[in-house]
Amino acid sequence: MPAGSDTAGRIRLLPQRQLGLPAPGVSTTDLPRLDPAARRSVRQLTWAVHAGEGRRPLSDSSYSDRTIRLLTAAPLAVLLAGVAVQLVMTPVYNSGARSTLLTLILMACYMPMVGYQTWSAAHLRRPRAGRWMLAATAVIVATGLVLIGNEWQMTMAHLLVSVLIVLPRRWAIIGGCLVLAAVAPVDLLVDPTPNALWTMLVVGQRAGAVLVPTWFVGTLRQLRATRETLADQAVLRERIRIDRELTGTVGDSLTTIAERGAAAAVLARTDPELARRELAALVDGSRQALAGARRLIRTYQRVSLRAELDTAVTLLSAAGVSARLALPDQGLPHHAEPELRAALRSEVDRLLREQPTCSYVITVETTTGVPRLTVSADGAVR
Description:
The protein is mainly alpha-helical. The chain has helices at residues 36-43, 60-93, 97-122, 130-147, 156-166, 169-190, 196-270, 272-300, 305-318, 338-354; strands spanning 323-326, 360-367, 370-377, 380-381. The chain is built from 10 helices and 4 strands; from the N terminus they run αααααααααβαβββ. It has 3 domains: 70-219, no CATH class; 236-300; 305-381, Histidine kinase-like ATPase, C-terminal domain (Heat Shock Protein 90, 2-Layer Sandwich). It has a 4-stranded mixed sheet with strand order 1-2-3-4, with helices on one face.
């Protein structure tokens, strides 16, 4: 998809809370985006490994950044390689120094523009003054065909690249077809032994060598942006859920305490005995509210075994390790012993470190009511 179209170590994951749904009437599209500090906290995940290995951070986002930066340079390297091939082949087919000098001058005029367009497409940006650059590239390529001739016609691949990047999607397809169709009459005019079909194939291949990595890098950037957006929305949904729970429990209790306290203050002047009983009830209600708040906080600090297993599989899949769960028919206990959780995190940490190519099965068996965890690969139990 052309970028100029309609689109403009290890991880320590603290599974402390389960994600909830937004409050009624709240749409995730209406939620505000997180501030930069909160976004960094979402991206930089860490996984707590067992005590024998300590904590070693691994940032999957930094790895992706390095990969994307390297891939962004790939189409530019292909463009430079095309320049080198053109400069080498021109004196081979035409021994005159004039043709070589003209090739160097003309390519120096339009290649920076094509390179900038490619760089913009890889970053999902519309190149500034892109259509003026496209027009200038077309004029320079046409001038080269007149002045240099047969040796220059392969540079129409660069014109094709510019057309597919700069023009909107619907016009890019039409413009690309027109450029490829123009290769045939140009070949008949400038080539002493024309082979229009072969020339069209070579022009398309050279353009594809630049466009494919460009679009691939743009897709990677788009996927990463989508992942960050989903992470932002997940954090916001969790905040909304916690706010709703606190409002329905602690908030209501505090409101009741405030109202009964005000009523007791009024009764203290008219009926001290009734005020004393009201204050005693107020103290009991306050203690119950405190106990409820403590219970609620403890639920945020605990996560179910199934949620932790799902988190482990998701984390492995995100790291490129194929994994699935095999659970007992009778279901899982809601909570597990710390030893089982430590074993699960240790195995996930090992798989993230080794990055195996085979798929894994995380099996949980319950014998005598006690869950037992095994991680197997190709039938070999670890």
